[in-house]
Amino acid sequence: MGNFRRISDEESLKCLRVYRNTGDVSAYDMLVICNMWRVRKIAKEFLGLGLPFTDLVSAGNLGLIEAINRCDLENITENSFGALIDITIKNYMTEELQRFGKSKWVNSLSSTIGLTDTEKASLITSDILFEDEVEPSSKLHM
């Protein structure tokens, strides 16, 4: 993974406004690429919780894109832009950890009691089994 040029939250908002007002895809690309450093920084905080760094980065990149696409320009400031991006990235990584935890537990259960593939898939996608499966440490959500 390469190094990414960082831009300030003010510059990020300018890129987002240009993209939303003109449809300039290069402004959107710059916005995403120049904020990927956030994903890598946050992924390092999640290391040791069960997922490889690359999986954390993949989930975080989806969070970054989601945050950028859903950002409400009327209610966002340069002071809150970075926090919005970071929170969304952390949420995506946490969700990925929860999915991983379910999958790991269901595979272990399956080897013990012999679940079918359909039963395993049903348990993994179910929200009833694990409400608090993976709870990252409180320091991650400051």
Describe the structure.
By secondary structure, the chain is mostly helical. The protein has one domain (9-141). It is built from six helices and no strands. The longest helix is centred in the C-terminal third of the chain and has 36 residues, at 78-113. It starts with 8 loop residues before the first helix and ends in a 17-residue tail after the last helix. Residues 128-142 have low confidence and may be disordered.
Summarize the structure.
The chain is an all-alpha fold and 142 residues long. 68% of the residues lie in helices and 0% in strands. The longest helix is centred in the last third of the chain and has 36 residues.
Could you give the distance between the termini? 26 Å
Total number of β-strand segments? 0
Strand content: under 5%
- Report the biggest beta sheet as strand number plus sense, adding barrel if it closes: none
Number of H- or I-type helical stretches: 6
Percent helix, as a range, is 55-70%
Average pLDDT metric: 80
Provide key terms for this protein.
elongated, mainly alpha, 142 residues, 68% helix
Reconstruct the topology from this structure.
Layout lengths: L8 H14 L2 H9 L2 H11 L6 H18 L7 H36 L3 H9 L17
Helix pairs in contact: 1-2, 1-5, 3-4, 3-5, 4-5, 5-6
